[in-house]
Amino acid sequence: MSTKDKVLKILEENRDIHMSGESIALQLGVSRTAVWKAVKNLKNDGHNISSVTNRGYKLDNSSDKLDKWAIINYLDSEIKESDVRVYETIDSTNTEAKRLLNSENLSNFTVLVSDEQTAGRGRRGKTFKSPKGTGVYFSIVFFPKEDFSYNSFDLVTIKAAVSIVKAIEKTTDKKPEIKWVNDIFLNHKKICGILTEADIDFESKKVHSIVTGIGINFTTEFIDELSPIAGSLYAENLLRSELVAEVINEFYKALYYKPDEEILSEYKSHSLLLGRYVNFELNGTKYEAIAKDINEKGNLIVQTDDSKLMTLSSGEVSVRGQF
């Protein structure tokens, strides 16, 4: 680890106080000049660091540059040792995760975070707009247990959706809703999308690895064709690194500690579809039906006007009259 990274780690771990150059130098076993140079380089990288005579250095409360140590600082103790990798820009964190899975032995719960995506991806080949400095774009790589059922694959996305909602509610006063299966809405506008992908042996149905990608519009302004439907979180006094970490914390608990019944109950309580008429297409036929329930596999149960029940395992649905 470079001296610059070590200095940043100390500043992130002590955000509430000033750290003198002398104390940092003693901790790291380097000269005060080396610390000064590291701070200068961090400022050039975009970190807002105040320097006060006789007090030392301190990250400004509004300093919101994504970095590994900021994220780790907010992680629960059980996962603080997770492999967190932060990029300035990348094509897609999900795509990078797949490349790494083919070239490295990644540890469970590896997290890839980027300040920008040039080729962000959504479900069904859609693009996800990912401009620099205004959102959080990250992927979590994990290896499911031997008894993981491919038939319950939608539950992973459902667990991610609940994790995002709970993280937002924990860090803000906002009340987001979930549009089955993978979109988070706030004030009738989409602020987040989820893309879950798996490496599967289709003969044995064994799932080797899963990548869950999450993109949250933090302060993104939309001035194009997405403007009527896309929105942003706009949360004051919330750092992007803190939100990323809280989502990771909640997702870890959802995967390894919370029973599926609890997750589904939370998902349903935040659903903006249940009880409403929805439009969807299945096998080339267009339907209108009432969203009735979400089953134990994460499938949407709908009822047509002739009382026929249908089960949707994936696909696009829209709410009549609003979305």
Automatic annotation (TrEMBL):
GO terms for molecular function: ATP binding; biotin--[biotin carboxyl-carrier protein] ligase activity; DNA binding; transferase activity. InterPro entries: aa-tRNA-synth_II/BPL/LPL, Bifunct_BirA, Biotin_CoA_COase_ligase, BPL_C, BPL_LPL_catalytic, HTH_11, Transcriptional_repressor_C, WH-like_DNA-bd_sf. One of its GO terms (biological process) is regulation of DNA-templated transcription. One of its GO terms (cellular component) is cytoplasm. Residues 78-259 form the BPL/LPL catalytic domain. It catalyses: biotin + L-lysyl-[protein] + ATP = N(6)-biotinyl-L-lysyl-[protein] + AMP + diphosphate + H(+). It is an enzyme of class 6 (ligase). Residues 21-40 bind DNA. Biotin binds at S92, T93, N94, Q117, R121, G122, R123, K190. It holds the Pfam family BPL_LplA_LipB. PROSITE patterns: BPL_LPL_CATALYTIC. CDD domains: BPL. Keywords: ATP-binding, Biotin, DNA-binding, Ligase, Nucleotide-binding, Repressor, Transcription, Transcription regulation. Its EC number is 6.3.4.15. PANTHER family: BIOTIN PROTEIN LIGASE, BIOTIN--PROTEIN LIGASE. Acts both as a biotin--[acetyl-CoA-carboxylase] ligase and a repressor. Belongs to the biotin--protein ligase family. This is Bifunctional ligase/repressor BirA. It comes from Peptoniphilus indolicus ATCC 29427. The lineage of its organism: Bacteria, Bacillati, Bacillota, Tissierellia, Tissierellales.
